[in-house]
Every structure is written in C-alpha cells, then in structure tokens.
From TrEMBL:
Keywords: Iron, Membrane, Metal-binding, Monooxygenase, Oxidoreductase, Ubiquinone biosynthesis. GO terms for cellular component: mitochondrial inner membrane; nucleus. Pathway: Cofactor biosynthesis; ubiquinone biosynthesis. It comes from Scopus umbretta (Hammerkop). GO terms for molecular function: 3-demethoxyubiquinol 3-hydroxylase activity; metal ion binding. This is COQ7 protein. InterPro entries: Ferritin-like_SF, Ubq_synth_Coq7. It comes from the Eukaryota.
Amino acid sequence: LPAGGVSLRLCSTRAAAGGINKPVIDRIIRVDHAGEYGANRIYAGQMAVLGRSSVGPIIQQMWNQEKDHLKKFNELMVAYRVRPTVLLPFWNVAGFVLGAGSALLGKKGAMACTVAVEESISDHYNSQIRTLVEEDPEKYKELLQIIKQFRDDEREHHDIGLEHDAEAAPAYSVLKTAIQLGCKAAIFLSERI
C-alpha cells in the first residue's frame, strides 16, 4: 500500500470509481441492452409481415423509439464497460420469430404481442427504478432518468397495442401469458449470462 494506506486500485468487484455498485449496474445495463435489442428484433419481424398494412406506420413509430433506446444502451455499455449477454444471437432469432409469428396472426396478434412484451418490460423497468432508488437516487440520477423515460415509452407502446384491439386477438390471454413467461425467462437469463 502507498503512503497513507490507500490502495491505488481503482475498481473492486463490489464498487467502481464513483462508488457505483458495479455488479448491479452491469446487470441492469446488460439486461436492458438485451431487452431493447430483442424489442428491435420483434418490431423488425412485425414490419416484415405487416409493414405495408394499415398498422405498418404505427409499428414503425414504436420501432423507431426502440431503435433510440438500443442506441442509448449501446452507449451505456461502452461508458460503464459492461459486456453484452452472450445470448444476443439467440435473442436476434427469437425476437424476429416472435414478431413475425405474432404478426402472422394479423394486426390484433401483433398488438397482443406488443401489449405482453411492453407490460413485462415496463414492470421490469419499475423494479430497476426501485433498486436504484434504494441504492442511491442521487448517484444513479442519470441512469434513473433514462430508465424512467424508456419505461414511459414502453407504457405508451402498451397502450397503443390496447387501442388497436390487442385484446381481440385469438386466444389473447393464452398468448399474453406465454409471451410474458418468455420475457421473464429472457430477463432472468440476460441478467446473468
């Protein structure tokens, strides 16, 4: 140890420079990046099927917001030196298949998928907001602001889905439950792997 007994090591496994809780921040950024990546792939799949339909512009508008979200999390991955989940290739395919598959059920199927996914994601963002507020709301002010804004965007997408007859999709409650179980599994895995 140098004079004064202070270690020169800038980071530990628990706290990084600036006193952030590195494992918590890594987990949050990794899973949010994966989620926004998956959302982009879902909307890409929906646009591949319904892009030229009457609902195409609505899907494109939501997709554009998801592209902005992904861009921001790409920046945060670099800024916080967080590695992405190794499952990105899987989410690439699974997201597109979910988007295209739900769109093959028609506009209502695509909107049911949107409602299920966006409800899961906004709930997940709320959980992260609680975690960061418990940690230190001032220290994580910027990240909290980003997550709150993205949560609000996801809630807006959820409401758009409801306004466009999501609940009239074939087997809506079964479809919604299955998609949300998949979202929970994806969140669990992407936080850790």
